[in-house]
Design a protein that fits this description.
Number of helices: 26
Structural class: alpha+beta
Strand order of the largest sheet: 4-5-6-10-7
Strand content: 5-15%
Mean pLDDT: 85
Radius of gyration: 24 Å
Distance between the termini: 55 Å
Shape: globular
Largest sheet: 5 strands, mixed
Low-confidence stretches: 1-40, 582-589
Number of strands: 10
Helix content: 40-55%
């Protein structure tokens, strides 16, 4: 009862916020499925996060960006509301009431209390106000830095040799460089892109300094040794401390793979039409989990682009599980990134019915032409499987509360279902079910799949070393203050963990966008891959279509979302270094 009263008051505060309401109503034209005016705060935030990235109209994106900041401000104030915290603490301190709670309710109550504690609820009123102020400041700094990581750098056209200018975007008398052009066969193009794209931006350097300082000040204020200690509290890791040039790494890795194993993406793409890949996923989920996709016609105004497709996810006996909106194709002003957004989380409603989850999968695939369907290269196909792993985590989660539904779990566990899908994507028994040449209907030869898998061994150690460098840099940035520039820290960590030399007058950290969403948690990719590999080897390597294992995987992992401790879902084993190294290598090694 106490918790229900607290939740009701929580919703009341949100609904009565004029600022919040004003911005929420600006989203409604996105469509009925995304009309967030009456949703709860967490889903308001998620919807705004999606709209600011996925909507084709810049006015909508700007409005959603402002809404995110306003919603975040309301949430931070609620996280330091003493009366709400006291009500929840009374519940948790009452053994009789606590023992009567089901596991999901108890877990969510404990997570709410955890949020109160890391937000500084134990501080006096003045310091709580300071914590709120720091968090609100962080919202602005996060937004400023994240936007800056994606901005191109400009240079006068005459500064580059004429014969390579056409490789970049020309705007009048200047050239815009918005990426590393790592796949270019021209060494000069790669070098120019690396040095110009990573050239230090003084204002963004100051922003990063302010961001790290603000995070550290907040962590110290609420009682943590560093921001990393605060961020890792509640994760599986628990605490911190668990003549090639840089612009050549990606290119030469790909070149060696292509030469040694004859991996030419254009030879694979005809077998990986988007339709074939989606059918492959449909067949895999049907055999493994009893789940299939069904195309549905969106209502008028329901989708934000006519290219978006709506899929109903249906179980053979349970019926409708949820909806996936597939925003797969490139278009102007759409970010070139693959991601998953939760629009509506699953939860058990008062009437006993289950609220169906709704998610968006956003990819950057080439649109079809009049004569050719959308053809995916092996990397695109693997990314499709990866993102669909996130979607199925959301679809198959069956938690009582949407606070812990689907991917709303520990950061270092959230990537496990998606990375696991990459193992299916490179298993010939799975690929053979759907990879057909779009013109001839011939299956993809097994030898080509074998070569593709074997090619992943090339430079695997260097790729892993690069990920370790990223993770270590992230931890140092969020550890104890270093009293030196972020570039000096980068240089030292690169020399220590990576092996390739630092290039003077570059600031790669200003393109490290994961510092926002994965601050102090970038290691999660390494840990999640280790766990996913362990699940693959123990459950699916022998038979990727084993229905019993599929049901066990759903029952023991996917169904719980964040309502169960991640380590308990990995058979309660501690992920020691030995286990980590033993399971990090791909199954084909």
């Amino acid at each position: 009862v106490v918790m229900m009263l607290a939740c009701q008051r929580f919703v009341s505060v949100v609904r009565n916020s004029r600022t919040l309401s004003r911005h929420v109503t600006t989203w409604s034209p996105v469509g009925a499925a995304f009309n967030a005016q009456q949703r709860k705060v967490d889903l308001l935030q998620k919807n705004a996060d999606f709209v600011k990235v996925g909507h084709p109209d810049p006015a909508f994106r700007d409005a959603a960006e402002k809404a995110c900041i306003n919603i975040g401000t309301v949430v931070e104030r609620l996280n330091t509301n003493v009366e709400l915290c006291r009500s929840l603490k009374n519940l948790l301190d009452n053994k009789e009431v606590l023992d009567s709670l089901d596991p999901d309710t108890r877990r969510v109550a404990e997570l709410f209390m955890f949020d109160f504690e890391i937000s500084g609820i134990h501080l006096d009123e003045s310091k709580r106000g300071k914590a709120v102020s720091l968090n609100v400041n962080l919202l602005d700094l996060n937004n400023e830095f994240l936007n800056g990581t994606h901005l191109p750098n400009r240079i006068e056209k005459t500064a580059l040799p004429e014969h390579i200018r056409h490789c970049f975007s020309i705007d009048g008398n200047s050239i815009q460089i918005g990426g590393l052009h790592a796949d270019s066969p021209d060494e000069l193009v790669r070098e120019a892109a690396y040095k110009i794209f990573l050239f230090p931006n003084s204002s963004l350097l100051l922003c990063l300094d302010d961001l790290l300082t603000c995070r550290n000040e907040l962590a110290k204020l609420v009682g943590y040794e560093s921001f990393a200690h605060r961020a890792l509290n509640g994760t599986m890791a628990k605490t911190p401390g668990k003549v090639l040039m840089p612009w050549d790494h990606s290119y030469f890795s790909s070149a060696v793979r292509a030469e040694r194993y004859k991996i030419d993406p254009s030879l694979y793409s005809p077998y990986f039409s988007l339709g074939a890949c989606m059918e492959g996923l449909n067949m895999l989920f049907s055999q493994l989990l009893g789940v299939s996709f069904r195309n549905e016609q969106p209502m008028a105004g329901e989708v934000w682009s006519e290219e978006v497709r709506k899929l109903a996810v249906v179980h053979e006996t349970e019926g409708l599980l949820g909806y996936i909106y597939c925003d797969f194709f490139r278009r102007p002003d759409k970010p070139h990134q693959d991601c998953h957004f939760t629009i509506q989380g699953g939860r058990l409603k008062k009437d006993g019915e289950y609220q169906h989850p709704v998610v968006v999968l956003m990819l950057s695939l080439p649109p079809p032409t009049r004569s050719t369907p959308t053809l995916l290269n092996p990397g695109m196909m693997e990314n499709l499987f990866h993102e669909m792993g996130h979607a199925m985590h959301s679809m198959l989660g069956r938690t009582r509360y949407q606070h812990v539904t689907g991917t709303r779990c520990s950061t270092d566990f959230a990537e496990v279902p998606s990375i696991l899908m990459e193992f299916f994507a490179t298993d010939y028994r799975v690929v053979n079910q759907f990879a057909r040449h779009y013109q001839t209907g011939q299956p993809l030869p097994k030898s080509m799949v074998s070569r593709l898998c074997e090619s992943k061994r090339i430079c695997g150690a260097a790729d892993t070393q690069l990920q370790v460098f990223y993770a270590a840099l992230d931890q140092v940035y969020h550890g104890k203050p270093q009293n030196r520039s972020t570039t000096d820290i980068l240089k030292q960590m690169q020399e220590k963990f990576y092996g390739l030399p630092y290039v003077p007058n570059t600031a790669w950290q200003l393109r490290f966008s994961h510092l926002i969403g994965y601050g102090a948690k970038y290691y999660s990719y390494l840990m999640s891959r280790a766990i996913a590999s362990m699940v693959w080897r123990q459950c699916f390597q022998k038979d990727p279509f084993n229905r019993d294992m599929g049901e066990r995987y759903r029952r023991e992992m996917l169904a719980h979302g964040g309502s169960k401790e991640p380590m308990l879902m990995v058979q309660g084993k501690e992920l020691t270094l030995t286990i980590f190294l033993g399971h990090y290598l791909p199954p084909f090694l």
